[in-house]
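Internal ticket #5521
Category: modeling
Description: The requester needs a full-assembly model to guide mutagenesis choices. All entity lines are attached below as received. Residue total reported by intake: 1154.
Assigned to: D.W.
Attached entities:
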Amino acid sequence: MSQLRIALAQVNPTVGDLAGNSATVVEWTRKGAEQGAHLVVFPEMALTGYPVEDLALRKSFGGASRQAIEGLARDLDAAGLGDVAAFVGYLDLDEVGPRNAVAVLHGGAVVARQFKHHLPNYGVFDERRIFKSGRALEIVRVRGLEIGMVICEDIWQEGGPVSALGQAGVDLVVSPNASPYERAKDDQRLALVARRAAEAGAPLVYVNQVGGQDDLVFDGDSMVVDTGGALLTRAPQFVEHLTVLDLDLPGGAERVDRDTVDEFTVRRVVLSDVPVPAYEPLPAPGIAEPLPDVEEVWSALVTGLRDYARKNGFRSVVLGLSGGIDSAVVAALSADALGADAVHGVSMPSVYSSDHSKSDAADLAERIGLHYQVQEIKPMVATFVEQLGLTGLAEENVQARCRGMTLMGLSNQHGHLVLATGNKTELAVGYSTIYGDAVGGFAPIKDVPKTLVWDLARWRNAEAEKRGEIPPIPESSITKPPSAELRPDQKDSDSLPDYALLDAVLEDYVEGDSGYEDLVAAGFEPPVIDKVLQLVDRAEYKRRQYPPGTKISFKAFGRDRRLPITNAWREGRPATG
Amino acid sequence: MSQLRIALAQVNPTVGDLAGNSATVVEWTRKGAEQGAHLVVFPEMALTGYPVEDLALRKSFGGASRQAIEGLARDLDAAGLGDVAAFVGYLDLDEVGPRNAVAVLHGGAVVARQFKHHLPNYGVFDERRIFKSGRALEIVRVRGLEIGMVICEDIWQEGGPVSALGQAGVDLVVSPNASPYERAKDDQRLALVARRAAEAGAPLVYVNQVGGQDDLVFDGDSMVVDTGGALLTRAPQFVEHLTVLDLDLPGGAERVDRDTVDEFTVRRVVLSDVPVPAYEPLPAPGIAEPLPDVEEVWSALVTGLRDYARKNGFRSVVLGLSGGIDSAVVAALSADALGADAVHGVSMPSVYSSDHSKSDAADLAERIGLHYQVQEIKPMVATFVEQLGLTGLAEENVQARCRGMTLMGLSNQHGHLVLATGNKTELAVGYSTIYGDAVGGFAPIKDVPKTLVWDLARWRNAEAEKRGEIPPIPESSITKPPSAELRPDQKDSDSLPDYALLDAVLEDYVEGDSGYEDLVAAGFEPPVIDKVLQLVDRAEYKRRQYPPGTKISFKAFGRDRRLPITNAWREGRPATG
């Protein structure tokens, strides 16, 4: 048996910030070394951030990333960390093209480069657009142990590099990842990682990034499983975290003496041949439980909003407070993400606003302790309506747009990030006013269905009570019937099905890509199906101009679901005969 | 020698409209048959329209397309057209997955299905996301002649199906396409088609669709070249067109008696074995000259705007008329696309508007004969500025946003499509107000650099003079220095480099993906590079919320250039050492 101390560096890089991310790698490698780690593993593309999208196609950026990884190897050495083997994801650029790569840094140099093999090109991923696939496996010998590398999608697909490593013979597999958060994805990860460890015939070290990047958020959930699939450690979600773990490895993996296995060429690189002398292991690190569903979503939304604001240089946000549930939840999220002092709420009552709208908004502001102001929109609305002779829907929209303009005015004047407070259900059925309530730089709950918005509110209030704090969200914002209040006595239920039903149809149609017959088979009534699908299909143009917001579902609007605006296809009962 | 009469059906389908597109195929097959054609070739995915984007992933749509192609075969037969071999692009769905396919319809049935092999996954294309690749070649024998099929990208890539068809032995190759317009692309097409004909050892029939689909426009430019690469016919651009051509084919292509060639399996299908009895050929159809550059761009923009409006059910458009060149060009385009009576221009002067702004706008309206109204924004602006205490940039933006709200109000009240009038240069450097002048359902010139906007204006005026009509665009809109007129005596040149220089830098940075060193090598001054690149990088969030508009360049903003908003990468001189 050979011992090895491994550090999992679950960090939060920023896309494009080569200098800042390099400094992070040095800092966390030092932390690992201080705890005696022999190797430190960083996430996929930790040097460049992920996803870099079309930046991968810019030669200057690819060249800079390649220079930066060499520089980082020297920096680590200069910092006295050259003995540690650091596994760092980066963008490589060679004569074949850009690569999603992991470098092994040791002794001041890049001693091995592993290229990603399976390039995901579905959902939010466009990796076949921007990367060339790798067909080689680099196996590094560290302290006499053979270590192979596989990158993210390489463990999500059957066959390929993991199986080839198993055949080639390795003592350990490390896997840097940038795997975006989705509800319930963590439940799949452990089983997957365990299966791959068995396939490789070696323990597997899974390291995922944390943090937000535009519409994606990464939850971490880094872990190590042994060859038998047993979980040895698991990191908490949504926080930067260093896990240090001692492994007892049998060593002496049967090394196949071939240059190729399956479709892969194999290259072995020796960093250090002498095993670590026997030492006293550290206490085993913890096994964090994945968060319960609603708390996990809340954490994802807080992380996504915090990082969008922070990484884009905003210190404060402004949002409209209607007294309703959506703006209340966004306000509470904002306070959790940035602190109540960074949150500016604006109540913008119109002639149709109810008394409870105003009092609930004020109550919310007081509960959270955010900055609060009231801006009546009556005078603005009157100017437009009278001058342009607007009636009906045109008049309703002017109210929403005067609110949008007010928020943008305050943003321009004071530098706040404007938050759009629409939820996924509204976005799906087009129940929002473009350039009105859809205004914003970021839309924190755009991927949260209305029914889940209520769950989040209840969970957050209960959490406050548990902590002995004031629940942030007024009870009446949770319990009252939703209304846009753009005309007298308007209720959402006047023009939309009940939200529980609506969300059920949307889950099947949007996330499940169900057709008409599937929906009928699922038990929905044809008139409801017709109504909902028509609303969804007609609102595509609005979604295109909606701000980005944190993805939490399998299929978020945006890069996950790319549909034409001009689209005459309508789901319907197939014509008979 | 064997004779064969071929019809090239350069049609304009609508995405998703299976019934309407089927009717188009029947109608155009009839037109071909009336002229005695033995085969009629339609564009790529003519049945479904192109691109269908993620609709390809919806099983109900794939199933409906497969049903519709079978139904179309029966419809053709029922219409007495079963003798004609119709080559029709459609979406296939089999157990492997969705396919970009061409069906041969004959005698009331689908007699062959060719699947696309090379799936483009760059630029605006996401075909590896949505289609599975084909590895088979279906060769149909029509009147004793062997006819192979290759779809769009299959002729843009070296090797693959064309070369395999050449080895297998064919008398003719037909190629259905949906190849989006880009400036100067037509110059490449002929050379490419000629090269592939040589590779196949047979004449090549190239049929491309026409019309607009969201941000893409297709120019047609269908053609036939003989085995030696000589151009036999070429269809005019941007119009639906039926070309009927008689070919003398040597016939008796050396048929390789193998089931596989290279990586492809080969299947031969016999439709009819007896050659056509000798007949008197029709006069050779014309060889249309591709349009000159500026006229071609104008036609692309008219087509893109016309089809976006028509296919989305809009009969009229509304836009702000500032007296400047951008809105003047968009107004003239709109009149050409939809007729002057469908165009509603609104002059929205503020306190900073010059006299010439108002008179030039009125002059433009009169020249074109569009509907014209003046809406002073002073009262609206004053309400916001005073109530919210706005100054500086916040005040400037309110002016632009009151204009946007005015246009949206008129749109909601009267059903017009709102047009955003920004050009590519503005969009690149963020010289526009989000929710202000960026408001719109469509942005006709969003991919047109400012310098080309002037060229378009001059060309359109000269064209009017040639036709003995009143030039639509006031001379002073072309010659005066551009200004946003959001503060006293403001000129674009106060904050931006000269447009000729700016467009040159942008062409290299945006279209060419040049890095800092490339730009220096191209002769630009570092302070100009720094300034322009910073503006471009910081404006990404605005571009995300901008309306769609017709792509005319190699790299349009949108699907062509996918960059993160949160992005710390800044081009700059590489650090030395």
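Resolution: model delivered.
Comment from assignee: The two ends of chain B are 71 Å apart (CA to CA).
Ticket closed.
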